[in-house]
Specification:
The protein is 38% helix and 19% strand. By secondary structure, it is α/β, with parallel strands linked by helices.
């Protein structure tokens, strides 16, 4: 059986590194391209790491000429919403311009299959809940806008060339490898669950709840948390679907269930058996009350089913992984 090389751009980051491990376990040979600005060298485990940037045409030519990639997976976007508002050009340069560079290399070297790490941020303020793929796409920040721009480019490429893609719109990625060999690690950390776990470990003085007056059952925002391992499983299914001739598509990835900020706090306290200070503050601009996915299309067309949909399991895995570290 021929070796199946997969280029994983951003494979030293949180989701990318879990994907690399998933590919290794499935018998693929992932080759990681990561500039290590936010990624971690040790996170690629036994996979080959090329330290570099997708903006580097010479490096891309060398990579594509050295390996016969069957697919490319892209996890190399900047992801902080607040930073994208303050420094939009950084996001347009990396998330859009550099991605175009990568896509140009794929066309040049006739690599036909692309898996794109997208986001529910493309939808903007929800007009209906749960959110399915027919929901209006109206990004309200540069981060969401850059992801949507890439999706539009992918659609055009798919029509113009022998090229197909899967764009996977994540809701709230969370958790860590069940065996503890990989963790979620961002600098600075902006995701709710790891922030609360930091408070539970005594690494953070308190947790701030931004608003208790939302139209939800307990007044705090509700989000759809999806385990990183379930995300990886969806990527693998999407890649396999493309390899079997399935046309380009866009899928929401979530569990279809929302948890409130207060529920997350309560579950962390229960799992960690720790208490910590919680501070109430005013709402943040741009925080919708409820963001919950309708993942039925992915479940039906990719035969995908989340295995770790319960938040207590997601929190437990994240807590155990950080404890192993």
């Amino acid at each position: 059986m021929p070796t199946k090389y997969i280029l994983v751009v951003g494979g030293a980051g949180y989701i990318g590194s879990h994907m690399v491990d998933h590919l290794l376990q499935a018998g693929y040979v992932p080759i990681v391209l990561d500039n290590l600005i936010t990624g971690h060298r040790e996170a690629v485990l036994s996979a080959k790491l090329i330290v570099g940037d997708m903006a580097d045409n010479i490096l891309l030519d060398d990579l594509f000429s050295s390996y016969s990639f069957s697919s490319v997976m892209h996890f190399a976007s900047y992801i902080q919403v607040g930073e994208s508002v303050l420094n939009p050009l950084k996001y347009y340069m990396n998330n859009v311009a550099n991605t175009l560079n990568l896509l140009q290399a794929m066309l040049k070297w006739k690599v036909k299959h692309f898996i794109f790490s997208s986001t529910a941020a493309v939808y903007g303020e929800p007009v209906s809940i749960p959110i399915d793929e027919t929901h209006p796409v109206v990004p309200i920040n540069p981060y969401g806008q850059t992801k949507y721009m890439v999706e539009q480019v992918l659609a055009d490429l798919s029509r113009a060339h022998d090229f197909s893609y899967m764009s996977l719109r994540y809701f709230n990625a969370a958790g860590a490898h069940p065996e503890g060999k990989l963790i979620e690690s961002h600098e600075p950390e902006t995701h709710l669950i790891p922030l609360i776990l930091q408070a539970a470990r005594g690494e953070r003085e308190s947790i701030t709840v931004y608003g208790r007056d939302y139209p939800t059952f307990d007044g705090t925002c509700m989000r759809d948390y999806i385990h990183v391992i379930d995300l990886c499983a969806a990527h693998l299914l999407a890649m396999d679907a493309l390899s079997h001739g399935k046309p380009s598509a866009i899928y929401n990835l979530g569990t279809g269930r929302g948890y409130s900020v207060q529920q997350v706090i309560d579950i962390v306290r229960q799992v960690t058996q720790s208490d910590f200070k919680v501070i109430d503050s005013h709402r943040r601009v741009g925080d919708p009350a409820i963001l919950v996915a309708n993942p039925q299309r992915a479940m039906k067309e990719l035969q995908w089913m989340p295995q770790y949909a319960d938040l207590d399991v997601i929190v437990k895995h994240a807590w155990q992984a950080n404890s192993v570290e």
